[in-house]
Amino acid sequence: MKTITQRMRGRLIEENGRYALLLLDPQPPKNSPDLLYLRYAFVTQGGEELLFPAFILDDWGSEIKSLKLYDWFNGFAPQFPRAELFGLDAAGREMQRFVRQLELYSKLPCYAYPGPNTPLADGALVEAILLPDKSLQEPVRIKRPSDLKRPLRAARVSWWQVNPTIASFPFS
Q1: Could you tell me the sign of the dihedral formed by the alpha carbons of 139, 142, 148, 152, in that order?
Q2: DSSP state of 30
Q3: pLDDT value of residue 98
Q4: pLDDT in tens, 26-76
Q5: Peptide bond before 114: cis, by omega within 30 degrees of 0?
Q6: Low-confidence residues of the chain, pLDDT below 50?
Q7: If you ran DSSP here, which 8-state letter would residue 109 be given?
Q8: What confidence score (pLDDT) does residue 46 get?
């Protein structure tokens, strides 16, 4: 089973085991340099498990795949608690949960991978997304940009503007 990924152009910055993503292009062509692949997990109620989705079967048996799944979940999950979400847990094992078993309104943990087929366990949990601004000398915390689409807009991250030459990020 293949989980849903989102291709981005960017660079991961690691500081003491924590990761920030310098986002260079949220919709790059396939042949762009510096490609990363993001996967977003749903959280089960109680926060015990992560589910990286592959597809949803709604109450009528329609299959929702691709990044559209996150829009469907945002718009229809409360109305369809019996819909089934299929995917993988953090260890890469197949799992299935009913929508009613998931946290409907929690932000989505976001993991970055160097390739589209990198195993789930090898992902880096992204805690901050950095948007480039050449005029800045120091990182500036900002609100999430309003023009972003799901699932990136629903990621469990903080948002910053930074100079694109940044080499380390002070998680504070």
Answers
A1: positive
A2: T
A3: 97
A4: 999 999 999 999 999 999 998 789 999 999 998 888 999 999 999 999 999
A5: no
A6: none
A7: P
A8: 86
Q: Is 32 helix (H, G, I), strand (E, B) or coil?
A: coil
Q: Are 26 and 148 spatial neighbours (Cβ–Cβ below 8 Å)?
A: yes
- Strand pairing report for 50-57 and 63-64: antiparallel
pLDDT score recorded for residue 162: 97
Confidence (pLDDT) at 60 = 85
Strand partners, 11: 22
- In 3-state terms the chain splits into helix, strand, coil percentages (rounded to 5) of 15, 40, 45
Number of neighbouring beta carbons within 10 Å of residue 98: 12
State the Cα–Cα distance between residues 87 and 90, nearest whole angstrom: 10
User: Which amino acid would we find at residue 113?
Assistant: Y
Q: At 28, give phi and psi (nearest 5°).
A: -80, 160
Token pair recorded at residue 33: 């340099």
Residue 77 phi, psi dihedral angles, 5° rounding: -55, -45
